[in-house]
Predict the structure.
Amino acid sequence: MSFGTSRPVPRPAHHHAHHPPHPLILDDIRGAQKMLSGVARMTAMEGSRYLTQLVGAPVLFKCENLQRTGSFKLRGAYVRIAGLSPEERAAGVVAASAGNHAQGVALASTLLGVRSTVFMPVGAPLPKVAATRDYGAEVRLHGQVVDETLAAAEEYARNTGAVFIHPFDHPDIIAGQGTVGLEILEQCPEVRTIVVGIGGGGLAAGIALAVKSLRPDIRVIGVQAAGAAAYPPSLAAGRPMVVESPQTMADGIKVGRPGDIPFQLVQELVDEVRTVSEDELSSALLLCLERAKLVVEPAGASPVAALLSDPGSFRGPVVAVLSGGNVDPVLMQRILRHGMAAAGRYLSLRLRVTDRPGALATMLGVLSVADANVLDVSHVRTDPRLGLTEADVEVHLETKGPAHCTEVAAALREAGYTILG
C-alpha cells in the first residue's frame, strides 16, 4: 500500500481541527526529548559504503542497536512511566514482552524508582530473561505465545492495580520513539528517505510524526516481515486487521495486529509499507555483521533487507533505522547459516556412497580439491532404502558463492557420486 508524499501533513497549529483529534503533536515529541536527556543515548549515525554503492546514493545507519538495553524501546517506556501520577507509580507497572520492550520497561522503571513486573513467554530466550532481571524487573514466565503472556499481564494489572505498559499503543510510548526522528533530522539534515521496521507501529508512527511535521518532503518507508505483515491489509481496509499466527524469525516486528493509535499515524504519514522475506532478513543481518561490524537482530535488519531487495527504488540520502541488537546467540547461529545459504556460501548435500573403508576419506579428498570447507559430516547406514554395501552421507560445506556451489556439485558427480539432495 503506497501513499503519495503530497498528502496534507498535520501541523501542531491545526491539532484541534482534526476529526478525530490527532492523538499526538510535534511538541509531545520535543517534550519527550527533553525528558530523555541524560537517559537515552543519542545513538551514532554510521555510513555504509557497501549499501551506498548498491543504492547509488548515501546510505546511513541510525544505530539504535547501540542504545541502552540494546534497542529503541527504552525511549518510549521511560516517557510513559515518567508520565505516571504518584499514585500510579506507587502501584507499580506491569508489561508483557518476549524481548526488547521487557528490557526497556525494566530499566526505565528502575531509573524512576518504580516497581516493575514483566511477564515473558515460557520459551523466551534465556539471555533476554536474564537481562530483564538484571535491569531490575521481577520476571514471571507464563504462556507459550505472546497473546497468553499478554492476557496474564493484563489479569495481573486488574488484580493488583499495577499500570499496564503497552509496547506501542499509547501516545507517550509513540512520543518517546519519535525522538529517534528528531535525532535523524539533527544528525543528517539532508536526509530524503527514512526506512524503518514496523511491528505494532510505534516507532514508525513516532518517527513519521516528528519528521513530517518539520520536513513533509522526506519519504518514510515502513518494512514488515512478509510472514507477519498486518499493515498492508490494514491500510487497504482502512482499519487495523489481524494476521492469524504471524510467522517470522524477526520477533521484534512479529505483531499480529497494528496498534490503533500507531495505525492512524502510519496511515496518514508513512508513504509506503513494504515486506521482506526471511531470506532477505538473514542476508541483511549477515551484511550488518560482516560489512558494518554491527550486531543487529532480524527486526533491526529489516530496513537493510528492504534496501537489498530493491536498491534502485530509494531516493538518497537514505537513513535505515537499526532498531535493535538483542539477538539470541542460538538464533544468531541459525540465521548466519541461513544467510550464508541465501548468499550461496553454504551448501548442504546428501550423497550415496559405497560403505567400505576409505570411502569417506576419498569423498573428502574430492571436496578438498574443489576447495570447499567441510563444516559437518554425518553418516546414515541403517535406512531400509539402502543396499547392503551403501551408505548416505550428509555434508555441510562453506563455499565462496553460487558459482563455487555449482563447481563443487559438478566435481562430486564427476567423481562418480550420486547427489540425492
